[in-house]
Structures are given as structure tokens and as C-alpha cells.
Amino acid sequence: MIEPTLYFETLNRNSILIKAKKPFYDWINFVDPEFPVIPDDEGTIYLIKELATKAKIENWLKKNFDQIFRNELNDFHTDEQDWPQTRTFKVFKEWFSYEISSMIVDMVDKPLEKQ
């Protein structure tokens, strides 16, 4: 008996994986030295509306990077007065690396839940 091939559903989203770099860790350890944060390779995946090309996703990121920047800062330190005031796309790229994916496959047979 031949087993059926499983195909998984794709989500109508694109993703951007954000990973902190050394300047981010230097900043957080400066503003909160009591609880030092060790650099790791884990990141945060942001799901965005589905766009047709990688160039369009990059363009979306260039227009919306500060929302992500602020969220990353807030995850570690909520006092906005301590946040860097200059948050350009150039600074964003110095503080974070990112990877774009246009194919999101849902391998779980349960509804998505938002928290």
C-alpha cells in the first residue's frame, strides 16, 4: 500500500525574521546592567500581509521598520526615554539582521490562535 503524500496549507502572509546584533546587546546591557542579556541566535518572526515579490517586502520593511524596532526595544526595556532616539533604517540594519520569506507553510492541523 502506498502512503498518500501530505501537502500542507500555506498562509497568506510573508515573514520577516529579525535577529539582534551586537549594538542591540551593547545597548540593553548598558541601560540594564543588573540583568545582562547574552547574545543568542534566536530571533522574532513577524508576519506581514502577503506581497507579490521580495522587493515589495523589502519596501514594506523600509517603510515600517520603526514598528519592529520599537517592539524589539520594548521586549527588553519598556522605558522609552532610554531608547535610542535616532532610529533610521540604517541604524535598524546595524542593530538587527533580517531574513525575508514569502512562503509560510502551516504544518499544524489546528486553528491559529492570537495572544
Outline the structure in words:
- The chain has about 120 residues and is an alpha+beta fold.
- It is about 35% helix and about 25% strand.
- The chain is built from 3 helices and 5 strands.
- The strands form 2 sheets. Strands 3-2-4 form a 3-stranded antiparallel β-sheet.
- The chain is globular.
- The mean pLDDT is about 90.
Strand order of the largest sheet: 3-2-4
The rounded distance between the terminal residues' Cα atoms is 42 Å
Largest sheet: 3 strands, antiparallel
Secondary structure: helix percent: 25-40%
What is the overall number of helices? 3
Main features:
115 residues; alpha+beta; three-stranded antiparallel sheet; two-stranded antiparallel ribbon; 35% helix
List the helices and strands and how they pair.
Layout: E1 9-11, E2 13-20, H1 22-31, E3 44-49, H2 54-76, H3 89-95, E4 96-101, E5 104-106
Antiparallel strand pairs: 1-5, 2-3, 2-4
In short:
This protein is of the alpha+beta class and 115 residues long. The protein is built from 3 helices and 5 strands. Helix content is 35%, strand content 23%.
